[in-house]
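--- STAGE predict ---
source: upstream dedup step, 1 unique chain passed
mode: sequence only
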Amino acid sequence: MQFSDLRLSEPILRAVASEGYTVATPIQAQAIPLALSGRDVLGSAQTGTGKTAAFALPILQRLSTKPRPAGPPKVRCLILCPTRELATQISDSFRVYGKNLHVRSAVIFGGVGQGPQVTALRQGVDVVVATPGRLLDLMDQGHADLRGIEILVLDEADRMLDMGFINDIRKIVAKIPPARQTLFFSATMPAEIRGLAEALLRDPVNVQVAPVSSTVESVEESVYFVARQDKPSLLAHLYNDLPMARTIVFTRTKRGADRVVKRLHSSGIRAEAIHGDKTQNARERALANFKANKTPILVATDIASRGIDVDNVSHVVNYDLTHEPESYVHRIGRTARAGASGTAVSFCDPEEVPNLKAIEKLVRRSIPVEVSHPFHCGSAASSAAASRSGGRHGQTPASRPAPAPRHPHSEPARHSKPQHAAATPEHRHPLARHEAPARKFHSASPRPHQPGGGIVHPKPSLRRGMHHAGSAGRKRAY
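--- STAGE serialize ---
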């Protein structure tokens, strides 16, 4: 479906066209008409599907065409998201797509001084993009008044639940008028998120782009069995041997991310880490260097990676194989975006074999095994082969034949429920998560989609203005 078919205003269409987009992605083709009609929307979509534009475009149209209420300026739209990086990305998108409109926005998150944010709120903005912790702090101090909110958006609600923001969200929503439009996006629907959706949404329409168990077709996946202590050496080896270009490496912990960077530096490879213990300036600098190809490897935790929107990522490395199978789909969706191809490499030590089994159960297939490397771990491979032999995934284990390892290393003994309307997924869209059985939500009818377009990766031409924030006493600064 063309954007011109979605009843968007001429200034918005002009801004979209200037970014090179003409065809809507499935989530955009379904959600935009519903949002324009004023309906509440429950969207199941992952990163890389173009969902930011799916809510940003109709919001911009509504705010630009509906007169501001009389009296002092009030915030009219609130968007809550889990991390500062994602908040910045969303705010940039609003500036780019609204550049021909008179809609003002501000972004609010922790980790920096709150002064500029307070000033922006006092001067008056139409749209606030915020992380829950910092926003609640400003509300408690009397700086943020949400009584004029007309539209509420929750983006990546499941990740906000994981980060412990669910009670903060409830406190914030209690201060927002109940007569509003709510757009709710979550990649997964655990019971607590489903309960929150049922409490916030009124007669919503469910929009689902695809099931979670699907990964991007254009991603070449492989798993390397390796002893834990050999992971740094394997990463350095693969960086030179594959070779890797622009690469994101995922670790389980913040300390682990720093250790990986240190080991890469010792091998003469430039890398930077991005995680919650880094200052905002350090995180922005690392991301800017990565985007500018000054740093070839960005090492990130799952939480900090939310909002990283970078084109042409050639490789994703699961340095620590996640214990959350859905996060695997999120991670590898960082490559092969906007129609490109990419490679996802997973390291699996003996203790992580159960994690691999859970991932393969979710995606319903075995991930090909790569043995042509000098750090192959026989005990991990044997354990994985034994767990696969039951044929749980409906396919025989895949493996890439290769020459024997050049330098074998011995490994130590180390130990409400919606009815969904599925849209036809494009090959570049990470597929949305598995949902629980259905309740009373309406389903949006699938709409035709033409491949080769869609706003998946906004490339903002305008830099963000206010990354204000700072909070007296809030521990979380994401």
